[in-house]
Amino acid sequence: MTIHYHMGDITPIEALYEMAGRHFLVNHLYPANAQRCHDIGQSILIDNGAFGKWKSGKKTDWPKYYAWVERWLEYATTVAIPPDVIDAGSQEQDALLREWPHRKRQSAPVWHMDEPITRLCRLVDADYDRVCIGSTAEYAVVLSEMWEQRMDEVWNELVTVFGFTPPVHMLRGMACAGLRWPFFSIDSSDIAQNHCRPQNTPRRMADRWDAKQCPPKWIVRTIPQQEDLLCA
């Protein structure tokens, strides 16, 4: 079953408590509800805040992030995302990952969609809890035509290399729920942003999202660009 992580930065606090028993994403940029989410949530995914930092042009104090994460990893069902930098090269990503001081069993490194798929396969094969897929400038719009084609290419390669469906998390990927990609987990800030609209309540929104499951396996698809190359 797909794990749906809902952004824990929800106000007022009563709205957060209405979602007791859900899975939460706690972003390092918005840490105020971290303890509350651990108190009422089934499990927690800790986001390092790289996407928000990328959009704002700010840098992260990674040693400070390491120390902050350590406290939450005392909870066995909490998984943290190690440092990553959007639109940086694979070498820089790997260098950051080597500095990560926490155990792999509770870590979920990020592979960015413009990186070689061989790096994704290497991360999957490295015994992390799961691997996250993150967007880049080129693939910033989830479910755009370019994004879908790249994602099909990714899953074709994963199942060909491993012969099974590895645990993969799609960052900002809740819109993928119920579609063709077999994500282990997905997340969204939709409830945090939109629960105050008249037609919404946090619980009803969570019920709708959590009822949409990703398929258990990937069926290899023919990608149009590959057909064009063969015809040429």
Terminus-to-terminus distance: 42 Å
CATH architectural category:
Alpha-Beta Barrel
Placed side by side, the strands forming the largest sheet appear as 4-3-2-1-8-7-6-5
- Unreliable spans are 227-232
Helix content: 25-40%
Radius of gyration: 18 Å
Largest sheet: 8 strands, parallel
The average pLDDT score comes to: 92
Could you name the CATH topology?
A: TIM Barrel
Shape: globular
Number of domains: 1
Number of strands: 8
**Helix/strand order:** EHEHEHHEHEHEHEEHHH
- Strand composition percent: 5-15%
Top CATH class = Alpha Beta
Secondary-structure-based class equals alpha/beta
Fold and architecture overview:
With 232 residues, the chain is an alpha/beta fold. It has a single domain, classed as TIM Barrel (Alpha-Beta Barrel). The protein is 38% helix and 13% strand. The chain contains 10 helices and 8 strands. An 8-stranded parallel beta sheet has the order 4-3-2-1-8-7-6-5. The protein is globular, with a radius of gyration of 18 Å. The N and C termini lie far apart (42 Å). Mean pLDDT is 92; it is low at 227-232.
